[in-house]
Write a structure and sequence with these properties.
By secondary structure, the chain is an all-alpha fold. It is about 65% helix and about 0% strand. The chain has a domain of about 40 residues. The protein is built from four helices and no strands.
Length: about 90
């Protein structure tokens, strides 16, 4: 993504940072903008949510394999759904 970017002492405030950034070549400014937009497009809890879902899936698989999961056949499940939502 960001290549050949010379990193110097980090500016102490946003004005200093902005002055440094606008001195960069256009291509480097665009790469930085793309990188920042990518960071903002990720949900803040993306990794936590992913690992939580993986743990939930693993627990459900174990429950099915060891026979502790409660299950319904399709017809019974649909009957219950209709009874609940088609009143």
């Amino acid at each position: 993504m960001i290549r050949n970017l010379v990193v110097q002492k980090m500016p102490t405030d946003i004005e200093d940072l902005t002055l440094k950034l606008i001195q960069l070549p256009k291509r480097q400014r665009l790469e930085i903008a793309r990188f920042l937009l990518f960071l903002d497009s990720q949900p803040p809890d993306f990794d936590d949510a992913t690992s939580s879902w993986e743990a939930e899936i693993a627990a459900r698989i174990r429950a099915v394999k060891d026979g502790s999961a409660a299950s319904l056949d399709y017809s019974e499940a649909m009957r219950k759904v209709r009874a609940r939502f088609m009143q």
